[in-house]
Request: fold
Amino acid sequence: MTYLSLDKSLSYGIKFAEKIGAEEVEGYSSSSKEIEISVEKSIPTIKTGVSTGVSFRVVKNGNLGFAFTKTLTQERLESTIKVAIQNANSKGKDPDFKSLPHPSKKPVQNFKFDKKLDNLTSDNLASDLTTLINAVDGTKGLHYLQGQMFLGIVEDHLVNSHGIDITDKGGGFGGFAAAITTKGLIPNYSFGIKGGPSVASFKIEDLIDDTILQTQRAAAPRTMNIEKELPIILEPEASLGIMGSLFRIITTQLTGNNVASGATPYSDQVGNQIAVEGFSLVDTGVNPNKIGSSAYDAEGISREETLLIDNGVLKTFLLDNYYGNKLGLESNGKSSRVGQFGFGGDPVKTQPNISTSSLEILPGNSSKEEIIQETKEGFMLRSLMGLHMSDFSSGRFSVTGFGWYIKNGEIKYPVQGVSISGVLPDLLKNIDMISKERESMLLGDCPYIRFSSVKTTAKKFDLKTRFGLGMLKILTTLKIMKNPMF
Reply:
């Protein structure tokens, strides 16, 4: 049995598809290297691997079919193409499908792959994680909880029958860590996340410092009884971070597929004021400092910086080739394949889909300190849980977060179990302060944002819960129970 190279597999697959009647063909190949090293509850886990494969999208009878294979033989490639054609035939004609993309005429930003990423090994990542664990455990009042170092490198090739022929190589390198603090009656935890597309963009010292700082900020939390509408300040991590971020609801509502199906309140709102003046949201798919950026999207269309909301006015949507055509617009390069650089699985197994790359909320006119000082009573939240339970069609949400109680313009103390609820389209019109300062995160840049009035509730822990947390603190301090998760 003869195995073909990735490039020969693409060439053979496309020729065979055209030979048996495919009207258009797209071939995609990927060769990826992934290393993940994590330690949780003192148990180390190492995942390493190299994955290769090809996938095809074929057009037959006015629709698209998809199939992939990891076995690069002529026989398997032929059966894969036949499955893709069968898949297209079974769907029937799609009146909204026009064609696969043609070569882009838009400017293309060049990205240079950092060759030093190729030299990183599992030993390098394990050494960094060991350094982090020792630094956290060596800090008074803190204990390492869990963490992960990751490295992902993807080299891909995209070819279609209209002349698109693109090769690309990119990567991501970074880490995540969480620590627990036993200061005060109630133990608490927090986290740090750092990473970037090059070796120079990530330093383990930065992740250590951020993890320690954020956990110390969370120390000695309280619980309280409150139920009223209050100003809420979102720290950047709660707005656009990867650990639960409120504005991911709005980006979902602005994807072309949801717009076309009417599963969003914004289908007919282009040109209208949907947020306060001063709020601007950008998908910056060509930021060289972000892991999600690249020269081309998953369909071979050049990526571009897209202003989605400009001073509160909706300008456009996140569009790929299909939904751009369906909506009478043009793709703005928002197609991606999940799984690149260690996030979400294998890109060969997934068809292109609409996604943001890296997001920015533009800075405002207030300083962070002014926002806090102007808050008579409210909360500043860093993390939100339960966003996946939100109604993304309407934007209705009810989430629980961790943050700090503010009284008379001063941060008083950390608080656990603060719940906020509302409808995001209404909340966008309720923003009254945006900071000049922004934080650069793994997949986005964001300022501090204050909403003037949000339904807020919090409850004190009952005696049983407080007793259990007290015991948890004792056990953690004595290291009888290593690295508890709660």
